[in-house]
Amino acid sequence: MKTKILLLAGMCLGLAACESMDLVPRSQGNTESWYTTETELRLASNDFYILGYWQEPLSSSEQWSDNTTYRQTNRNPGSGGTILDGTMNGQQYEVYALWQQSFKLIARANTMLENIHKAKGSVTQEVYDRYAGEAYFCRACKYAELIFFYGDVPYQEETITISEALQRGRKPKAEVIPLVYADFDKAIAGLPESYGQGENIHATKGAALAMKARFALYMGDYEIAAQAAKACMDLKLYSLEPDYAKLFKQSTKLNDEKVFVIPRSIENSVILDSWIVKNALPRNAGGYGSYNPSWDLFASYLCTDGLPIDESQLFDPRNPFKNRDPRCAMTIVEFNTEHCGFEYDPSPAAKTVMNYTTGKTQSNQDTRIVNQYSSYTGLLWKKGIDASWTVDQKVEQDYIVIRYADVLLIYAEAMIELNRIDDSVLKAINMVRARAYGVDVTATDSYPAVTTTDQTELRRALRIERRMEFAMENQRLQDLMRWKLAGKALNGYNYIMLINPTELLNNVVNKNLWFWGMTPQIDEDGLADFSALFNAGYCSQGAKRIFPEREYLWPLPTHDVELCPNLLPNNPGY
């Protein structure tokens, strides 16, 4: 019998150590005897939804964008910040983790598809189609990510022999894309619209349509993206959660806006990474408060008249949360408000703050004049974060892969790029914006509805809307990359408060210039320019971000390239 291998960390990684490895998950039993009953198919499919397959490492991608700041460094856990330092290479965690986790799930999907025929005759056609659909869905999702980040990739749709594997290398991206669409279409055809109690973790028809739409948008196939998004909308199964802030709380589980999520569970010890929890919580509440929203993000939120801060008469740099899109204060902690049981005030003039639990004032650990490692931007994340995070600092917040607001904006963006702008496009954008204001989309006197039908103006509005809507949801880097704006947005300095808190007190606060000494300028791409504030001595430069042109495609993992240099040539520049 020929020795077989499963593609796990990549084709050549499998070749490096193929001596009698047991690569079949224990819950799947032996592939020779399993996949014969509905129970066995269900147990096997459960393993498709291991959190690591979906969140690693892309749940950290917000840290690789202009939406975040970590003190004075481009810090990424495990990598030293190399994604924003311009030194990306095939040995760093992000590169090999995405490759490895994707191919692991692809291998499991392929195993299901190779063996599911054994269940014919013992399960209904509906059950058969459902589990095959789940496998097609997972394979399509993972190849979608691999193509986006690596371009040409090894493509496998079956378990293969070593000799067969040696004959294969990277398949051109243009040839893989139709195969991914075909897998999504098979998933759409086979998956049910919904499940019974307890199976909500599994992919549905709507999830397959939504993920196909996202992939098509990323590939610039706008017709396919618009059609898939519209089909998802036409299912009439999803709607926007009326309360934007509530949607992200760990207490919010099943929800009509969540199209596809991987749940966490404290009971099952599947929890949010402790680094994220610690660094998101205020220091007053026992956290580090060091992983913060950037000034770039803060400046991007429109004012309540729908204008950017440098064009609106409503914006006050001394009171920067006033008259802003409501998502600003629902994403970033507003100054002098309660957060996680404490008043939040990063000003060096505020050496004490209110502890709302005790009803007394206490030393303010969230100002740098008291604690030098508190937020360097003066900003803290609020989106999804509340006092429940402080309970043993164990958090079971759902990992949202895609939600209905994204489907609406995918549809709108695809139609804008096709220059087929009609009322349905404006409605899709305005539904998302109106929800932020807590009003119906038709109440145009209560929120700044988007009304322009000019393609260039609408493209800009859509991109700003995505940034406001999806901040802290790990989509910003991918958006910048596909819009070819990463080079512009990610080359330059992160701006932060004056490093010396005494200088901040004397030069900004005591001169009545807190928080920003002047209004930053916003360019045609919605990107902020803080150079005038820096030149006036109102702020400091933080880490320098570097995004080389080569990083529009990631390198392949070094280990795989070294093993198979002829089969796996690296991407240009690495």
From TrEMBL:
Gene3D superfamilies xrefs: 1.25.40.390
Methyltransferase in keyword set: no
Assigned keywords, A-Z: Cell outer membrane, Membrane, Signal
The keyword Membrane is assigned to this record: yes
RagB/SusD domain residues: 281-574
InterPro entries: SusD-like_N, SusD_RagB_dom, TPR-like_helical_dom_sf
Domain annotation SusD-like N-terminal: ranges: 87-217
Record localization: Cell outer membrane
GO cellular component term, pick one: cell outer membrane
First-listed, main subcellular location of the protein, grouped into a coarse class: membrane
Family to which this protein belongs: Belongs to the SusD family.
Protein's name according to its UniProt entry: RagB/SusD family nutrient uptake outer membrane protein
Organism encoding this protein: Bacteroides acidifaciens
